[in-house]
Amino acid sequence: MKTYQHYIDGQYVDPIGQRWFDSVDPYSGQAWARIPQGCAKDVDRAVAAASRAMREGPWATMTATERGKLMLRLADLVAKNAQRLAEIEVRDNGKLIAEMAGQMNYHPEWWRYFGGLVDKIEGRVMPIDKPDIFAFSRQEPVGVVGAMTAWNSPLLFIAWKCAPAIAAGCAVVIKPSEFTSASTLEYAALTREAGFPDGVFNVVAGYGPEAGAALVDHPDVAKITFTGSDTTGKLIYAQAARSMKRVSLELGGKSPNIVFDDCDLDQAASGVISGIFAATGQTCIAGSRLLVQNSIREDFTRRVKELGASARKGNPMSADTNIGPVTTPAQYKKILDYIGIAKAEGARCILGGGPAAASPELTGGQFVEPTIFVDVTPQMRIAREEVFGPVLSIMGFDDEAQAVQMANDTIYGLAAGVWTQDMGRAMRMSKAMKAGTVWVNTYRAVSFMMPFGGMKHSGIGRESGIAAIEGFLETKSTWISYAKGGPANPFVLR
Ligand code: NAD
Questions:
Q1: Sheet harboring 124-126: ordered strands across?
Q2: What's the pTM value of the predicted model, to 2 decimals?
């Protein structure tokens, strides 16, 4: 078993408390790595290193253009190491190698995009309405950033958070999920190889309530960027308020996939299945509510069921596996509990509905059958709460107005899918959805160029896209008077 260390101030170091915990491969059920258990003292050490890096030394004095070049170098190194890092992620979270390798191959684009942006962050000169004043604003890094990530796509979230943060000139302290820390700890070495000065990129592993909470509380951390559940997000939001930290939150969802009778049904069925069964449903953007027009409900339900039933469960490292294990024992139990709740509330299960039957291919792993419920009503918990598993609820609607009402009838607002050939309807639906992302005739698409984030309980702020950098900047206004003589009246606001 490999024993990992924190990465602080450009070096791998043991946890101060000399404690480690095991990381378990969800497919084999075996521990495969020892992860350092960080405490408040480790966090303090990392934040001190990050603060130092921002105050003194090469990072503080480097030109923006030079910082951008380091980011481009990191992009190339990540590209070279993509397959190795993807395999580590699969060992930690059990997601398919096809998905994780795809993410890792795409990952460098965030560093290239924001690396190119670094020396284009400009202030403004104001044509100020006062005589003899030169007035300008400049954009400065917000300060040390604490980043906390979820277990489903650990390194993708590092790119989403750290590329804009570092482009803004910040230094970061990352607390990865306790279930999937290994890839982030390995990745840190690449930042050193790329030439990042000591203290710019730090990783403290450990548990949320211990290391994570210490980071949120730390007085020298200016901003928290978090990806995780809305339950933890609310805790962090409240906790961060005590020290007036800036906060951005990427949280959960209960996203609708809305299928109209004028759509390409094969295309829609494939989009619906990928929306809910990809990554074993463990994605924030899972299209867990299928809203289908009643005129095609029976036919479409049959198609979706057939396609869902064809998904192959197995070893996530195999290229032909469609459904891997659930990442954590707690998540496995939660999914099975929700299946039980749905049945008890009167939903009818037409596919799956429990743990996968034992087979040699599935030993050790926590496998859930891809599950579909019909006869779901909008009040049922299965239609309202995030399951974070391969469980689809199907509900019917008659017309556009009812589709909009049902789609928005949720506390969440992360994403929505719309399937229609009618452009007018596509535009109306995109406008009417209370969601940060609307996909029309596609689903699960993301890009470094496209803002991503949630409305309502799905979060605060946006990642990716040019504007993402603003979350890591403060605007400073400077007034320079070149008037002769002092102020006429010192007691009056000028
Ligand atoms: P989680 O909330 O349990 O944990 C997320 C992170 O927060 C982990 O690093 C954890 O250690 C840390 N944490 C936990 N308690 C903490 C505390 N008290 N103080 C500080 N940090 C703490 O989430 P998870 O189970 O890892 O991930 C699944 C959730 O993430 C789902 O709800 C999913 O929808 C959401 N998610 C959102 C997005 C998005 O971009 N919107 C992407 C992926 C996952």
A1: 124-126, 133-141, 473-481
A2: 0.97
